[in-house]
Amino acid sequence: MDRYKITSGSKFQLSDIDPDDTSLFDGGKKEGRKVLDEELNPRLEELQDLLYAEGKRRVLIVLQGMDTSGKDGVIRGVFNAVDPLGIRVASFKVPTAEELAHDYLWRIHKQVPGNGEIVIFNRSHYEDVLVVRVHKIVPKAVWSRRYDQINEFEKTLTDTGTKVVKFFLHISKDEQKARLEERRDTPEKRWKFSLGDLEERKLWDDYQVAYQDVIRKTSTDWAPWHVIPANAKWYRNWVIANVLVETLESLDMKYPPAPKGAETAVIE
Ligand code: AMP
Ligand code: MG
Fold first, then answer.
1. pLDDT given at position 86
2. pLDDT score of 174 more than 90
3. How much of the chain exceeds pLDDT 70, in percent?
4. Helices (H), the chain
5. Which residues, listed in sequence order, are joined to residue 119 by a DSSP beta bridge?
6. For the chain, what is the domain count?
7. Looking at the domain assignment, is residue 119 inside a domain?
8. What does pTM read for this prediction?
9. In a domain, 267, yes or no
C-alpha cells in the first residue's frame, strides 16, 4: 500500500495521483466491498481489540479532504466492525470563542488518543493551514510558521507512543459536483447540503494549492501523508483499511499475560 504514501514530499504534485485510480484492486466494486466486509474490517476489529487489551500504544488517524470527499463515509465504512469501546471520533468545526482564545493546537491536543485507544480526527489541526489560509483568517506570517509547528507537534506525539496516520481523500472537481447534486436532489441527504459548500467550491483551486503545500511540507518520516484516490468510494475504503491493517500489524502487539492464577481459577 506504499503506492499512495508520500515520503519525500517536497516535489509532490496533487496531479501525481489520479482521483479515479483503482489500480491496486483488480476485482471491481462488488468484490472490493466483499473483501472489505469479510476480511479487512474484521481484521481491523481484531487488531483494535489487541491494541485495547495491550493498553500501551495509541493511534491517531487524521482525515482531511474537500467537502463531500467522504470523511464521514470512511468512518462508517472502515470502522463498522470495531468495538466502540476502543475508538473515538473527534470532529473539528469552526473554533468556538474559547478555542480561539488559545493557541490553535490547544483543542487538538485535548483530543489525542490515550493508551489503547484509536482516535479519528474528522478534520484536524490542518484546517489551520487550509481554510485559515484560503480565507486569510490570519496573515501569511502566522500560518506559514505552522507547518514546522505541526511537524514538531506530531513528532512529540510519535516519540511518546502515538502512531499518527494521515489520509487526504483526493476527489476531482467533477466528482464533487456530482456529489453536491446528489445531496441537493435526494431528500434524505438534503440536510447535509449547505450553500456555504457552494461558496467553498468556488475556491477549489486555492484549496488544491493549500492541500498540495500541506502534503509537501508535512509529509515526514514519522507522520507521512497518504493521498487516497477517493472518487470511487469502495476503493477509498479498501485502500484505507489496508493501510490501517498494515500499520497496526507493524506495531507487533501482544495480548498481556493473564493475571496470576487465572488459568486454574475455580469458578463456583
Ligand atoms: P463540516 O466538517 O462539514 O461539519 O464543517 C466544518 C467546518 O468547520 C468546515 O467548513 C471547516 O473548514 C470549518 N473549520 C474547521 N476547523 C476550522 C478552523 N480552525 N478555522 C476555521 N474554520 C474551521
Ligand atoms: Mg461540510
1. 86
2. yes
3. 100
4. 28-35, 41-54, 71-78, 97-100, 106-109, 131-134, 140-143, 146-159, 173-185, 195-202, 204-218, 233-250
5. 60, 88
6. 1
7. yes
8. 0.97
9. no
Ligand 1 probe mutation, 121, 123, 169, most atoms within 8 A of CB: 123
Position 133 in a domain: yes
Rounded to the nearest 10 degrees, what angle do helices 41-54 and 233-250 cross at? 30
56 CA distance to ligand 1 middle (Å):
32
Give the residue-averaged pLDDT of 259-266: 93
Model confidence pLDDT, tens digit, residues 104-136: 999 999 999 999 999 999 999 999 999 999 999
Q: How far is the CA of 91 from the centre of ligand 1 (A)?
A: 9
Judge whether 162 and 112 are in contact, CB under 8 Å: yes
Calpha distance 254→53 (Å, rounded): 8
Q: In angstroms, what is the span from residue 205 Cα to ligand 2's centroid?
A: 17
Domain that holds residue 92: 2-252
Mean pLDDT of 20-26: 97
Specify the CATH number for the domain of residue 244. Answer: 3.40.50.300
pLDDT band at 36 (very low <50, low <70, confident <90, very high): very high
Looking at the domain assignment, is residue 268 inside a domain? no
Beta-carbon count within 10 A of 219 CB:
21
Ligand 1: which of 62, 94, 98, 202 to mutate, most ligand atoms within 8 Å of CB?
94
Q: Residue of the nearest CA to atom 8 in ligand 1? A: 93
